[in-house]
Prior knowledge:
alpha+beta; four-stranded antiparallel β-sheet; globular
Amino acid sequence: MAAHTTTVKEADWNTKGFGTQVPFEAINEAGCYVCNWSGHLLRIPEDGVKPGRSPLVNICGTEPLFVTKISGNPYIPLSKARMLAADCDTIVNF
């Protein structure tokens, strides 16, 4: 499968949720997210957020875990994901 890249205009950054921190359990859109607690990259495909589907991953704990959305494309190249994560001042551990 070919990787598709998307260009994010600065005006779209906040309106599309890019750079926004949300609790892990509140992820409701496909895309790439960075784990704020570890810096790991999460690739959430469209199938992972369809209504009526069971979540592909479920993380349980006593404290909320936050992620930062860096792209609406779950398949962006790692080099681009690293740059976007750094732009959001998140830990980059991938």
